[in-house]
Amino acid sequence: MSQIPPVMARMWGREPAPRRGPRPRLDLGTITAAAIAIADAEGLAGVSMSSVAVRVGVAPMTLYRYVGSKEELLTVMCDGALPAPPELGDLAWRAYLAAWTRANRDFLLGRPWLLSLPYLTPPMGPRRLSWLERVLDALAGTSLGTGEKFNVATTLSGYALTSATTIAGMLEPEPGDPVVHPSDYGAMLVEVVEPHAYPALSAALRSGLPGEADGWTEDGDFRFGLDLLLDGVEALIARRGSQPGGGR
Amino acid sequence: MSQIPPVMARMWGREPAPRRGPRPRLDLGTITAAAIAIADAEGLAGVSMSSVAVRVGVAPMTLYRYVGSKEELLTVMCDGALPAPPELGDLAWRAYLAAWTRANRDFLLGRPWLLSLPYLTPPMGPRRLSWLERVLDALAGTSLGTGEKFNVATTLSGYALTSATTIAGMLEPEPGDPVVHPSDYGAMLVEVVEPHAYPALSAALRSGLPGEADGWTEDGDFRFGLDLLLDGVEALIARRGSQPGGGR
DNA sequence: ATCTACTCTGTAGGTCATACAGAGTTACGG
DNA sequence: CCGTAACTCTGTATGACCTACAGAGTAGAT
Asked: Which of A26, A112, B54, B139 sits in a 20 to 30 Å window from B39, CA-based?
C-alpha cells in the first residue's frame, strides 16, 4: 500500500521494527545528526560515509543498514538541518511572512552547505512541511485560494534561498573556492567589461560600483526583494478580496 | 596588476599567449563545449576529466594545462552553457522582463544540470553579464537607481532559478534519483501528514490535493510568482517616479 | 536445540581527481 | 647553426571515495 519511497518512510520514523536478530544499535536520527555536525564543522566535503561512520562508532558499511546510499543521507540531512519555523503569534500575515522569509534565509546562512544540496525539491520531510504549515496558517485569514497560498510559500522560500546563496557567495572566502570578495567584484568587472559590448553595464559601473556606495547594506538588498514580493502578494489579496473566494 | 583570478581571465580569453614550446592544441572553449555536450547527453555525472579528455582527443592530464581543477571547469561551463538573452526590441520594461525571466527559466530547464551547479554566484562571465546588461537596458527609461536595477535583475534571475528547479524536480524521473512525481506527491503527503501536527496543511490536502485540480498548469504557477514580482517592481517605480532620481 | 532473520564488519573492486616526472617540441639568444 | 629554456603533452601512481559481497555473530521464533 505504502507507495512512499523508503527514504521518506525513514524520515518519518516509519521503520519496520524487525523481529529477529540483534537490536539495531543506531537509528537514522543519530546518523543524520552526526553527518550534520560534520558538515557544520568541516563543510560538505568532510561528510563521507567513512567520516560519519567513525563519528557514530561503527564500520562504514554499517550505515547502509540505515540508508540506501550517500545521496539518501544527504536528502535526509536537508530536512534534519532545519530549525522550527518562527511562531505566528498574533502577527498580521505580512509581518509574519517577512519574519518567516528572514528566518528561512538566516538558517541557510548558518548552514551554508545546505545551499550546495538539492534543497529545492518538493518538501516532504517533517521540518520542511512545518515551515509550509506556518505560511498556510498565516494566510488563513486572507481570501487567497489554497493553490495560491502554496505558491506564495514556494516563491518566498525560493527568494530566501537565492538571497542566502548570493550573500554566502560573497561572505565566505572558503579555502580552495574560486570565490570573489564583493570589494573586488566591482573592480574586476571594470577590468573586464568593455563599454562597447556592455554599454549599460559599464555606464552603471562608472557611475558607482556595486558594493562601494556608502549607504549599501546587504540587508537592504534583502528587504528590497522581499518587499517586492510582499507588495505583489498584497496586490493579489486586494484583488481577490473583492471576488468571492477564488482558487481551489 | 590584474587581480582577477585565472579562471576569469581564461573565461574572457585573456590567456598569456606563450612564446616558447609547441602551440597549444586546444583552447578553453573547445574543452567547455565538450564538457557541456557530455552534460547534455549524460548529465553532470557523466562529466569527468577522463570523459572530457576522451571527447577532445587528449590524455586526461592535458586538461590541466587549460583549467586549474575540475571545479574551475564547472564554473566556466556555467557561463558557457548560457544562450544569448532575448532581444529588447521596443518592448516596455514589464513585457521585456517577463520575457527575460521566462527565457532564463527555459534555458535552465533545457540544461537541468545547471541547477546542480553553483549557478548563483555573482555574474562574472560574458554570457551572464550580457543577461544583466539587458535588464539594465530595459529599465533605463525608468526612474530606478542603479542599485535597484541590479536588485531587480538578481531577484528575477533567482526566481527563474527556483522556478526551474521546482519544475525540473517534478518533470525528471532520472534513474537513480529519489525524485517524486507530482501525481504521487499529494498522495504521499496525505499518507504521512497527521492532522494533529499539521492542521492547516492537512486541511488544504483534504480540500484538494496540489497538482490534482483541473485548472492547474505549471505555467500558471510560474506566471503567478512572476506577476508578484513585477507588480512589486511596478509599485516601486511608481513610488520612485514622484521622487527625484533615487538610488545611489 | 535448532533455525532463521537480522546486524555488523573486512575486504575488495571500480571510479575519480590530480601530483609528479619525463619526453617531445618549438622559439629565441648567441 | 646550435644550445638552451620554456612550454605542451602523456603515463604512471597515489589516495580518497562509494559500495557490492560474503561471512561471522546474535537473538528471537519454533
From this structure: A112
